[in-house]
Amino acid sequence: MNSAPYGSWKSPITSDLIVAQSIGLSEVRLDGDDIYWLESRPHEAGRRVVVRHAPGRGSDEDINPDPFNVRTRVHEYGGGAWCVSAGVIYFSHYADGRLYRMERGGHWPYPLTPEGSWQYADGFIDTRRRRWIGVREEHGSGAEPENTIVSIDMDHGWLTGDPEDHSCLVLASGHDFYSSPQLSPDGRWLAFLAWDHPNMPWTGTGLYVLQLAQSGKPVGDPIQVAGGERESIFQPAWAPDGSALYFVSDRSGWWNLYRQKSRSPIEALAPMEAEFGQPQWVFGMSTYAFAVNGRIVCSYVSKGLGHLAAIDLQSGALTPLDVPWTDISSVRARGNRLVFRGGSATKPGSVVVMNIDTQATEVVKQSTSIADDPDLAKYFSEVEAVEFPTADDKTAFGLFYPPFNPDYIAPESDRPPLVVKCHGGPTAAASSALDLPTQYWTSRGFAVLDVNYGGSTGFGRQYRERLDSNWGIVDVDDCINGARYLTERGSVDGARCVITGGSAGGYTVLAALTFRDFFKGGASHYGVGDLAALARDTHKFESRYLDSLVGPYPEREDLYRERSPIAHAERLSAPVVFFQGDEDMVVPQSQTELMVEALRKKGTPVGYLLFTGEQHGFRKAENIKRALDVELYFYAINVFGVGLTF
Q1: Sign of the C-alpha dihedral, residues 136, 250, 28, 70?
Q2: CA 186, CA 537: separation in Å to the nearest integer?
Q3: Residues 101 and 8 occupy one common structural domain
Q4: Integer Cα distance of 625 and 20 in angstroms
Q5: 427 plus 558 within the same structural domain
Q6: Residue 646: which pLDDT band, with cuts at 50, 70 and 90?
Q7: pLDDT tens digits, residue range 127-145?
Q8: Rounded to whole angstroms, how far apart are CA atoms 223 and 478?
Q9: Fewer CB within a 10 Å sphere, N or C end of the chain?
């Protein structure tokens, strides 16, 4: 074993290895015996491909051929860009926004919708009427896009070129946003979620049902079942026999499961201080599914870690399922067969199939094969869920990864430098799934704290609302206090702390470095520097988000200026490196470049990498690799002043 200071260790977990071995896995689906999922492939410039896994077959099958990219920009963040029915795939192609149909065994998809200014998401197939039902977003001449729920003829919807004729019916309109359409088993009722500015879906949504005629046209107006301005509803679903409508609500202060049978009062299922819902940044999310023998199989989060359980629908009893995964999503079931995406600190994001009765599991696909290599897996750092005191006598949370490398030992008096990670959103949460970039740091002798600052999900509505009117204050307090907590217990060197984050996390980075003097440097990945510019320039979905996080704009323009790092660049003296995509519609590159120019004029060490063809978040392998290596190199030169080995 070699003796070397923390932060200078050589690691086999290189950026080349990470991008070569890694793909993104999401949106698991079941169709008969076949399992499907969506892969995001950095080595194909981030192209997204639907993959079919048929039990008994030797290999998995790509469904959409190159260059088709299964992705949508509805609500800008997309998700839910495809569905499957009887082996036929229906998907949105990113390049033109059109909806396509891909037959089983077919060689080329054909379009269901005409060329135009429309995007589609969150759809399913109404098999009785042979129609695709989902969310449509129209980018016309109006001040902002128009969102509706539509029904499209699966066979002839593309022929006429007129989206308003009989081939495309508008089922619901008038609200600013829609999601989660679900058809009752008898085909008579459509359930869906809707909400309006300034709410976000985790703030307040309405759950509606709409009667459909045999032709598929709406009968009367939608009826509101649950939800409101201060109640967030997530994932409505009909019982398989149509006897009840199930949904997740945070009316108790926690996202718990509820149901309504016919006209009976709404009742809670297995109420507990845990989160059975997730913030709807994207479409197509699922945390529960119906299984045989009157059960729901569900995932929930408690104190930042995920769990899997079964709920008996008669008694309401919840029985935990013993699985090694702590990050669980995309839950689907058929009979006694369950599939989901699971991950843990030492297990990568994986598509998992499980027999609910025996609890036997099989991993059918992993996002990386590195974890299967014992010569590499031995370098992984284990996660520790931490709680720490923060401002106003409150408690905050995080996931701590100590430095670990079996080839090295640090001098006894040495303490590791700390990288504090700020997740995006800010209404989101740190993931406990194996994150190779985190292991990139820990295997080199850095400690990592992934902070679930106030405003994060997984800790109840009250915790989520800590950030209301306090963005740039509460999140910064929690990041600093998390680092101080680890310093005081002797886990890290408090004089060598840096902070990194993307999007909203990038804003927290810039706010911490501008308005406080704790961190010695940082990295902003497509982060917000000008809150007023964000309020003016961002897309529809988030255009009123800052009303709750900061205050109404322009009425409280003073607050926006007060909390915008760009307006106080003279107070920033710590080195910062910026990473930005030139096609980012969420945080335009102009924001980043204003901040970079201000630092250059001041003479503060600054780095800036602009990636061509990247949007909000990087998808190309070469850019992911370069951003990781440059961040490490920037800290080595400008912050720590130590020799690092790549």
Answers
A1: positive
A2: 44
A3: no
A4: 9
A5: yes
A6: very low
A7: 999 999 999 999 987 789 9
A8: 42
A9: N
